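input
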Amino acid sequence: MSAVELTRKGAVAHLVMHRPEVHNAFDDGLIADLTAAIDGLEGDDDVRAVVLTGAGSSFSAGADLRWMRGMAAASEEENRLDSLRLATLMRRLQFLAKPTIARVNGAAFGGGVGLVACCDIAIAADDAKFALSEVKLGLVPAVISPYVVAAIGLRPARRLFLTGEVFGADAALRMGLVHETVPADGLDVAVDRVIGLLAKGGPVAQGEAKRLALGMGGMTLQEMERIDTENAALIARLRVSPEGQDGLSAFLDKSQPAWMV
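output
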């Protein structure tokens, strides 16, 4: 079964990450299915907007534990290729030539924060939680970093990359990670209101407006491909490093890494 459910309501495509039993955590399957779904929507002229959300109580909890265990035992080259697949997903979402809305229905950690940052508009439940906790594993949020920094700014990113702390929807709103927070039962109304606003714009103009904004912000597809290659190599190197191995093992075994003992 696909880890992503695609439904359509008129000219709006709804992408639902559907691994609720693991809080929509990333693994190879979810990354591949979500990338394929986004690629399929790229050339679909009948789709005017895309809504991304998670099934169940979470948006996405980041990396799947079994997937992380496999990557901890993999070679540096295997980790590099794995990281490139995640980087490709983020880049395809960022540059999708249609308006995208993140419907953040619950917790968004790690790569989940990256997905939120890659969407044009983000609306979160007011009880949603966020975290970039990679340093607690001896790692860094490498492949999502360009999108997160672009969304929240350098100063907040420096703190969150270093502390790995959990922060709430109010903080995410202040930083610009999300544009609006609403009670969980008001998410659909808020999303529909934004869809109504988007319906008033010309689809060609909206695609050009998105490219214009990204370009003025210094983000081009070619530059991001280069950065993604470098960041994939970085996270691969850290995963197989002594500190990364210690951090991953401690997390998976529910023990403390050496730097905390």
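quick obs: The two ends are 43 Å apart (CA to CA).
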